Amino acid sequence: MSGDEPWLVAVVTADPAFLRRIQEGLGTARYDDRTVALTSAASPLELVSMLHDDVEPTIIIADSGGDQHAIDALVTPLYEAFDCGRTQVILAVDDAESESGNLDTLDASRCLVVRRTDLTGNVLQRHVRKSLRLYRTIQRLETERDNALADMRDGQEKLVQSEKLATLGQMTAGIAHEINNPLNFVNNFSESTGELVQELAEKFSAVTDSIDPGARDEIRQLLADIETLSERTLENGRRAVNIIRSMLAHSRGQSRHMEITDINTMLNQIVQLSYHGMRALNKTFNIKIEKDFDDTLPRIQIFAQDISRVFLNILNNAFYATDLKKNNGDGDYSPLLRVSTERTDAFARIRIWDNGPGIPADVYDKIFKPFFTTKPAGAGTGLGLSISYDIVVDEHGGKLEVLTEDGAFTEFIINLPIDQDP
After folding, report:
1. Fold designation for 7-127
2. pLDDT tens digits, residue range 155-166?
3. Model pTM?
4. Phi, psi (deg, nearest 5) at residue 341
């Protein structure tokens, strides 16, 4: 949508009186020097058939018509037909619906629920302005995201083309130095902004009686929006810090010293560390853990810190996968983790098995590639298994294998040489 085109507001309602009230409420008002183009349809399907494939409403005002049971049938088609992460949905409900449990399943970040009787005059215009602010913010963030993804893909191609990422260490050291200062500023500024907003809200509370009620509500909303944006900025800033740390870990090369290490003790400690870390993030998480350690396994020379990172990466993935499978609704499913060690002729063999969803065949060949991840955005950097492979195979001269069955299990088999010179 260009800067001079009108905002497209679509009204989905079978009630002519409701449509007339919206038309009168919006009138000829301008928002950011742009007018509103209003279109209407009696149902979501009719709205979709009216609009061209490349036309997307800025705001959809959907009228439930007072039917508590029609809410899901009204909102779900809109989510499916339009990018409702960007297109803002205002759902108009009556008093009885607003007090029922039918709204509990709606995603509050994608749908603003308002009483039908409130969608008039200045109140309607205030809700429209709020939705437009969110629309513009999401539009700007999407542009920044697309630019960042393009830059990342370009950088990834250059890195992968470099022989075994040989120059990544030098590059990331320089990148980290250049990025850390502005990134720290962004994080610190976001924290300070949140504190200032709270302080401003306290000051504002002391003088609210002297301010016009309409302006007072709008100021409160603006303060809430600023606080939300600062929290999101801080969250993504911290996420960027974690990505930088992972890149540094991926490129830093070998540890300085090998250590004689008891693999059984180390693995047992990392299992507990990873489990309690998952529990700290998700209090409902639970899993049965079966251990079978070979007492005859000798202590071996390894880069202990690096091998502990391998165990932690694989265990974290196992806990994440089993929790995901349980949350997907299999009522009879019981998460299970098996860890074992054994001595072979030349190797200490470690097996880590879980009964999670397994690895689909179409991504199996990609799991050790840098930056590849099946996790949603922000939940993983795509470097954990790549780092683990480099540590086991390149750094220790061992083997890292994966056995899996889609929908049934995944097993990582780590073979570390027993006789290895420090």
Report:
1. Rossmann fold (3.40.50)
2. 666 555 444 444
3. 0.43
4. -130, 155
